[in-house]
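User: Fold this; tokens only.

Assistant: Input:
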Amino acid sequence: MTPFMHQVQELLDGGPTSSPQTLPSESVTVAHGADVQVLIRSLAEQLVSEANAILVDTDRGVIALTDETGPGALAFTLDYADRTARIETVVTGHSATAQLVIRGVPTSRRLAGEDEMAALVLELIAGN
């Protein structure tokens, strides 16, 4: 088992979790925004796969990861039980802005870094 899989199991066994660290959303170049979105999306896929390897043996279901693309936006959504978290990068002109959308409500905040993706997945499982 990976270290993250152990964290998921500890959470299911009643262990604590903490919210992911976030920063205010900011406008960056399209290239930078797209690069960060792809990095975080790739990490999300890995973490969801690891979490689901543990969750599949429970009666709680598994996390769904859905990509969403459209004019001017790159996004993906994580769904678990009745909870959702969406990370989107919206392109306007020559700039891009990333933000976290929790339960359908835009936060005007972004993850503080790629490492916070694990905390977001754990928080989604915990239901905080």
